[in-house]
Amino acid sequence: MHKFAIACIFLFSFCLIGQTDQRIYDIMSKVSAERIKKDVTTMVNFGTRHTLSDTISYTRGIGAARRWVKSEFDRISNNCNNCLEVSYQRDLVKKEESTRIPKDVWVVNVMAIQRGTTYPDRYIIMSGDIDSRVSDANNYISDSPGANDNASGMAGTIEAARVLSNYKFENSIIYLGLSGEEQGLFGGQGLVKSAKEKGWDIIGIFNNDMIGNIKGGDGIISNTDFRIFSEPVPPTETERERNMRRFYGGEVDGISRQLARYVYMNVKTYMPEMNPMMIYRLDRFGRGGHHRPFNDAGYAGIRIMEAHENYTQQHQDIRVENGIAYGDVLEHVNFDYAKKLTSVNAINLASLAWAPPAPKEVSIGGIVEPSAKFQWSKVPGVTGYKIYWRDTTSSTWDHSRFVGDVSEYTLEGVVLDNFFFGVSAVGKNGFESVVVFPNAILK
Ligand SMILES: [Zn+2]
User: Fold this and answer.
1) Same domain for 370 and 283
2) Share of the chain above pLDDT 90, in %
């Protein structure tokens, strides 16, 4: 046994803090580029997966595609003693609702829930999209391979389910295949509506949309750069909360941003060869994705995607024009890269699914004192809490202190005015919750 491991047995709770966990490396090593390639190929071979395409055929159209996604989740579940609850979630979208819905259509999502052992009703979600499109958003006839947009994200989600279904987690994980994305985010909207009705406690969603292209329209080729999009603050905040920010800060510290920082930090720890780029915005300029319906409802959600998009390979009829081959075809997907971004998801799903709930109420104080004071609501079954802080201009939580299983703490000599602060809960297994930005003022 390694010396460090022996020390860990004696100092169990302490030595886990800030250390890595072998299971996370195991998870990374099990993600397969070959299987992702096979699944993307299968999805491309459905010809089109347009939301309004054929639903009867077994070989072509959105119906065949979603039944295949369900059958893959079912197969994975069979291999893990029925550890996944696989189901469809559907809503009828009327043609009056959008110019991109030329006829009434059932938008059907597929989901697989891996039930948590301690917190079965808390969910961390990974999503990809089943549907695809070409140049005309309403063309549901032409071939629309959507290999990168977004068979890559869907295949990554299925692969994450394959790998993680071999483990047991405290929290539930949902693997989600959404539809209706290209017609106006209808699948995500339907799913969120149903989640609200069921009162789901959602830790957050990782929306994967285009995780397979490494050759950018900007001429840059990189198989390590990728982007994490997160909105600054939830659109559901109250007028009072918005006003309070002027005095207490928090403009760049909403719940989705904390989720983005969590993913960023975990990648830096376990996959230092990667280059995660935190992008401080909801999504690309003027464009959308399926994390947005979740954000709209006040849930934390981020978009994980390639850094260098190629616009001749998105939403394009397959054709050659002026010597340029247009189309989102299989040949342009880099499966080793898709595997890496799938690993990014898998290690973060696992880390959060193994982590305790974050403290809900976190108060901060220490006005006109040379120290920062904190108080928070305790979380059952944790080994303690970690206070984080950073320069106000830094994007990452650069400093931290593990403070044990207490519900208040004073950071002596740290002036409140000069930093931003947050608190996380650390489980007995060493896994950590998302950082919570203080949401109350200490009296
Ligand atoms: Zn798209």
Assistant:
1) no
2) 94
